[in-house]
């Protein structure tokens, strides 16, 4: 049945083992050409869950997201930070081109509240990106976030410990971060398409235009100077229920 074969060949959920998958939802450019070239859709996958597994906190996991977050906030989209381990450092976010008025910080008391907030933020069209730092999360809960991302078309970014690499995940993309030769090595542990056996090396500066360096290991969420002050009225308007 040639017609069926052609339809399957063009379906975004089907790809040859030697190729990258075709993405039904265009990716958000990472700002790093070497990384974009290895990601289906040419960037961070929209409408899908991405897991980032840093070797240690503050290795540069936020600076690699700077260009994408700036692009989304420039489009008028909110960026929701769900229970970040530190308060975002507002001057660094502004230097990266991220509109502070589009930054929403959600504080929670327990993991179940964080999961609920992330799921609701992903489902609303107002959010272009959702960042979350779950301490513990099950496969079922990850699946809920993946479905929520698909429903809202948002950029869903989950920061997990490196040990999570041994666990199964429904995420479309899983990247491990480590230092190498004075820069940052990104290992794509999972993507939709052919596996990548070599790491992607980014310079230590991670393109200074990203502007997400701050006082502690280039982490952007390590200062009591918070973007929450600029986004306080916004968070009240953003419907997460």
Written description of the protein model:
The protein is an alpha/beta fold and 241 residues long. It has one domain: Rossmann fold (3-Layer(aba) Sandwich), CATH 3.40.50. Helices cover 27% and strands 19% of the residues. The protein contains 7 helices and 8 strands, in the order ααβαβαβαβαββββα. It has an 8-stranded mixed sheet, sandwiched between helices. The longest helix has 14 residues, at 139-152. It is globular and about 35 Å long. 45% of the residues are buried. Mean pLDDT is 80; it is low at 4-12, 14-20 and 207-241.
**Unreliable segments (pLDDT under 50, ≥5 consecutive)?**
4-12, 14-20, 207-241
Structural class: alpha/beta
Oligomer: single chain
CATH architecture assignment: 3-Layer(aba) Sandwich
- Fraction in beta strands: 15-25%
Average pLDDT rating: 80
- Tell me the Rg in angstroms: 17 Å
Instruction: List how many beta strands DSSP finds.
Output: 8
Q: What is the assigned CATH homologous superfamily? A: P-loop containing nucleotide triphosphate hydrolases
Major β-sheet, in short?
8 strands, mixed
CATH class descriptor name: Alpha Beta
Proportion in helices: 25-40%
Strand order of the largest sheet: 3-2-4-5-1-6-7-8
The helix/strand order is HHEHEHEHEHEEEEH
Total tally of structural domains? 1
């Amino acid at each position: 049945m040639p017609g069926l074969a052609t339809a399957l060949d063009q379906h975004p959920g089907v790809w040859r083992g030697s190729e990258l998958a075709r993405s039904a939802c265009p990716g958000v450019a990472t700002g790093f050409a070497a990384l974009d070239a290895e990601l289906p859709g040419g960037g961070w996958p929209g409408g899908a869950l991405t897991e980032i597994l840093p070797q240690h906190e503050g290795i540069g996991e936020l600076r690699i997201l700077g260009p994408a977050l700036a692009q989304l906030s420039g489009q008028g989209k909110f960026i929701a930070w769900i229970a970040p381990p530190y308060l975002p450092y507002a001057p660094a976010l502004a230097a990266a081109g991220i509109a502070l008025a589009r930054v929403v910080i959600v504080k929670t008391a327990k993991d179940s509240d964080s999961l609920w907030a992330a799921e609701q933020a992903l489902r609303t069209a107002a959010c272009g990106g959702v960042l979350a730092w779950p301490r513990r999360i099950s496969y079922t809960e990850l699946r809920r976030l993946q479905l929520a991302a698909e429903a809202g078309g948002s950029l869903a970014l989950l920061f997990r410990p490196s040990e999570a690499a041994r666990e199964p995940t429904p995420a479309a993309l899983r990247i491990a971060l480590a230092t190498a030769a004075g820069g940052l090595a990104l290992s794509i542990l999972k993507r939709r398409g052919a596996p990548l056996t070599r790491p992607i090396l980014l310079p230590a500066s991670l393109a200074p235009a990203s502007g997400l360096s701050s006082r502690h290991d280039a982490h952007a969420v390590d200062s009591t100077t918070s973007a929450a002050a600029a986004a306080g009225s916004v968070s009240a308007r953003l419907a997460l229920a």
